[in-house]
Design a protein that fits this description.
Helices cover 35% and strands 27% of the residues. The chain has 13 helices and 17 strands. A hairpin with a 2-residue loop joins strand 11 and strand 12.
Length: 375
């Protein structure tokens, strides 16, 4: 497959799939829609390139915007699109990274797949005139910068330049603990206007071919098309998601209680879900830190991050955002294995700290694969 250039017709299915893969986070697809429409309106055409097509000596980096979901909503899409035409923080911080590395960046790879955070990287590529790698660091969304396949495959998170909304620039040159850059970044953004951007994980093309979770942007496009086709044909869209993801429907029910808190740029939620249909009489507990982290059914652990718990509307198969959940919301939960490269990262020494369940309040747990928990 050569370089693929997106068209306006791709917007809806792409965002449909990205919202599902976002596992409750990754940013609202409405923001992604605004970004892509704005790019097409300004004559910019995002492109992706297959991972195996990049040169071994290419310079590859990752990155994205940082900030609170609620802060974005305070600004609104029109104001942010206008601001980004004047100063696009993600482009500015990428130029800082080029200065640090002393060379031009050939490709960006998204940190994660999600309704906002993938389109914003596609926009960066279109603005810089470079194709974005068809892949990311997770095959889903995640709340913290160190939670990546990259980190378990020998790619350093640092140097990591950050820029906030006010224009302040901070560079994390190195870090002893893999969680430190993200913690510092949250502080910088929180104290610099509530929004910003970072650039990180500099690597060669050869390293990227070992570390990137491949094909996830094109997967989102296929997934979105499958769900839309199921709806049009009157078929079960949740079953279409499970089939496309080679996953399993774990639970269906109604949220009866939400315990919520927003702090340090994260949206923490514990949802208690009363089972319906095949899960009648059962109770699920879903722990969310921006994204789905842990699922327990009747007190038994059924899925642990970074395996995917896809958070869906049972009627439409639409990917639900964690911030839109309310008592009474009907949900369907589909479980899917994370990519083998990501599992390898989790099992590495640095990955065991970076992905630790202690990061979402469960230091008593260690990662176990979805299929093992099913047994």
């Amino acid at each position: 497959m050569p370089v693929y250039t997106f068209t306006p017709a791709d917007i809806d299915p792409l965002l449909e799939g990205l919202a599902i893969l976002g596992t409750g986070g990754g940013g609202s697809p409405e923001w992604g829609r605004a970004i892509m429409r704005n790019d097409f309106a300004h004559g910019r055409h995002p492109q992706i390139i297959p991972l195996e097509e990049i040169a071994d000596d290419a310079t590859v980096v990752s990155g994205g915007i940082m900030g609170s979901v609620k802060k974005l909503e305070e600004f609104g899409t029109e104001a942010i699109m206008a601001h980004w035409e004047e100063r696009f923080e993600l482009e500015a911080v990428t130029r800082v990274m080029e200065g640090i590395l002393g060379r031009k960046i050939d490709h960006m790879v998204p940190f994660e797949v999600g309704g906002l955070n993938t389109p914003v990287v596609l926009s960066l590529g279109a603005r810089l005139g470079i194709p974005i790698i068809d892949g990311d660091a997770l095959g889903r969304s995640a709340p913290e910068t160190q939670m990546t396949s990259f980190i378990g495959h020998g790619v350093s998170l640092t140097p990591m330049p950050l820029i906030d909304y006010n224009g302040n620039v901070v560079i994390v040159q190195s870090a002893v603990d893999p969680t430190y850059p993200d913690q510092l970044g949250r502080w910088v953004v929180t104290n610099g206007g509530g929004l910003g951007a970072n650039n990180h994980y500099p690597m060669t093309g050869r390293q990227a071919k070992r570390a990137v979770v491949p094909g996830t942007i094109s997967q989102a496009l296929r997934l979105g098309r499958s769900v839309q086709a199921a709806r049009a044909q009157g078929a079960d869209p949740v079953a279409a998601v499970a089939a496309e993801m080679q996953g399993v429907r774990l639970f269906t029910g109604r949220i009866v209680r939400l315990d919520e808190e927003e702090k340090l740029g994260f949206y923490f939620t514990t949802a208690t879900i009363q089972g319906r249909g095949a899960n009648d009489g059962q109770t699920a507990r879903l722990v969310i830190k921006n994204e789905t982290m842990l699922l327990e059914i009747d007190g038994k652990v059924r899925a642990i991050f970074p395996d995917l718990v896809l958070l869906l509307d049972p009627a439409t198969g639409r990917g639900l955002m964690s911030v839109e959940l309310r008592p009474g919301t009907e949900v369907a939960l589909v479980g899917a294995r994370c990519h083998e490269r990501l599992r390898e990262a989790v099992y590495s020494d640095i990955g065991s700290r970076a992905f630790s369940p202690a990061r979402y309040g469960r230091p008593d747990l260690t990662y176990r694969p979805l299929e093992e928990l099913a047994r």
